[in-house]
Amino acid sequence: MNKPLEGNPLEGAIGLSLPRLEAVEKALGQARFTEDLVLPGMLHGALLTSPHPHARIRGYDISAALALPGVKAVVTGDDFETRYMGLVVKDETALAKDKVRYIGEPVAAVAAVDAETARAAVHLIEVDYEELPAVFTPEEAMAPGAPLLHEDYGSYFKIFDAVHDGNMLSKAEIVGGDPDAAMAKADRVFENVYELSAQYHAYMEPGVALAQVDPDGRVTVWSSTQSVFRTQANIAESLGIPMAKIRCISPRIGGGFGGKSEATVQPVAVLLAQKAGRPVRIALSRDEDMTAMRSRHPARVTCRTGVMNDGTIVARHLDILMDGGAYADDSPAVMMLAAYFGTGPYRIPNYRLGGRAVYTNKLRAGAFRGFGNPQATFATEAQLDEIAGALGIDPFELRLKNALQPGDRWIDGHAIDSCTITDCLEALRDGMDWPARRAKAAAAARPGRRRGIGIAAVAHLCGFMATSAFVRLLEDGSVALNTGAVDIGQGSNTALTQICAAALGLSPDQVRCVDADTDTAPYNSGTNASRVTYMVGRAIGEAADVVRSKILEHAGEMLEAHTGDLELLPGGRVAIKGVPGKTISFQEVSIRAHWATGGPIMGTGSFVYEAGEVDPKVALTKGFMSFNGAGAYTFAAQAVELEVDEVTGQVEVLEVWSAHDVGRAVNPGAVDGQIQGGVVQALGYALTEEMVWADGRLANPSFMDYKIPGTMDVPYGIHAIVLEKAEPTHPFGAKGVGEPPIIGIAPAVSSAIHDATGKRLRRSPMTPERVFRALAGEGDGVGIDWPNGQC
């Protein structure tokens, strides 16, 4: 694999802030999303969802729905065998079967000639329910005598050795050193409880799928997904269709943030298409999407940290209680990754980090940008500021004192090849001019409005699971790139095109990036986990190496030179080193390969991260999925300056600084956009966004009542500070930057509110009501809503 070679003229495509490949078609309104697709004879689908949080299904009466003119098919749980899908625990069916477990769970579906008829028909379906007791919080779910949501949990297929008990679907812990003894010897011990609410993914495009079944039973599905391969697997698992008979295609995607990593409406669309014998499209409304898709995990985090008086952190206990909702989805993995980052980017020699994920009768919680790390970091970084204040140490100095250093290892023994947290902290401190800005903030206070600043440091991972890439030299000397990665709107196709171009010394317009299609694309696990630029970029590097080698072999024979004497020139030419004018083009090479000898030139790259050996001094309890089979560590440091209105509790964010080590910025403009977007989404998580349930029913399923930040709610000054420290395991030194910008903002906001008012909020979002209560001396927000199920 090529190593990063800064200054290499062949790498001209790296470092260019190119517009996204699809920018013009989107600007002209010509981009085709799934809901824009129309097939001959296409029907429209609609879902009937459960009105009960927990009930047994005793039967259906679909006669009235079938009798409605225009209705072509109705499907229920009786239309398919009991087959389960799921990434970590296979516990979910395409439609509810035998019983429902949350309000909004799809129970039946209708296909009709138009959407209005389909929606009218679903309300004519009568379902005979036997209501069952429900549980809405993890505490209720784990209480003695609580109703079981999944009586057959023990028989479900799981990708890990789960430790479970009743509704607790997963429990795990990782222990290093002697945390109890170290805690007992610490000069000071700090223990606090932090709570975080559910967050909606709020992508622009709600869930949508279009399914077509050929006469031979072969299924084609177009859908808004983050992985055509996971969609294919979900359909196969839930409906029993061989994967070879399922084709999944990705048109343009209107965002995902993790919420579209697993299938939801796709299997239902297939069921309807099979029964109707015609193509069927299901497009969820915003209300349906919010009640039937996924959320970020609500969590309660107990953090106990032991420190010495000089600020040295000697021990940490972290316990994470996560509300997984009605189905497992990614809950065990999210909970364990949160625990995995429980020490933050610091040297903490003694630790006990663990948690539990629990079933409740609410919407399933799944993958969401950050994947558990925002929950853990909210607790650990907010508490670190409390420790700094109690010890009289500058917050930057406390972090720098304990920061991981190059050559250190993560808690499970995973080597940190590129450790840059100190660089990020110093860049942040310098970029915001920390001492002067703190003094200015203190001086800016005026009656009724107080100003404060808070910071946080972040560690994360990029690169999980399997990926591959296919690079083919076309007859005219240009290149077709196929990776199976889905561009969900973040511009990954553009970055991957730049990587491929640079690997072969081409300009980006000489590379065509092919959209994801399971029939033609090499496997890629998904667009998630900040993995595409890093993981797929590595696979492209391997594939391009093969192509380059074959080009040089042909060119050597054509130029009568040894391949070691040849070099690639920018623009797609091969030259003899030191012999001016003696060159041939990629087109000449490709024509020779296609029509004379050797065959078409193509290359593949394929790999999967395999779990390495865990440090024998570290104890992993049964059920802990180790993450040491993963890619590069990424680091960041973030700061927020804000003002608090002491009369209303309103928080106004004035400026944000976000410093990130991105390895190498393949497309600096896209990197800046990821940081800006992540910060805005994080501000919503910190201040306004909260999914609220009342007795299992989502009380705010619309953007009228669920508040995401608008243009007037975010500061003009979001300063992206980009550090480029080449990652040695990537062909051009790049790391992922999709998730880190969202992770540290909430604790920085909490610390800034404390800096402004002296009041500490340990519950996110820190809404005006909660800030006002804190100012009135009514606590830190913890435990006020959770017992009522509004978590």
TrEMBL record:
Residues 28-133 form the Aldehyde oxidase/xanthine dehydrogenase a/b hammerhead domain. SMART domains: Ald_Xan_dh_C (SM01008). Gene3D superfamilies: Aldehyde oxidase/xanthine dehydrogenase, a/b hammerhead, Aldehyde oxidase/xanthine dehydrogenase, molybdopterin binding domain. PANTHER family: XANTHINE DEHYDROGENASE, XANTHINE DEHYDROGENASE SUBUNIT D-RELATED. SUPFAM superfamilies: CO dehydrogenase molybdoprotein N-domain-like, Molybdenum cofactor-binding domain. This is Xanthine dehydrogenase family protein molybdopterin-binding subunit.
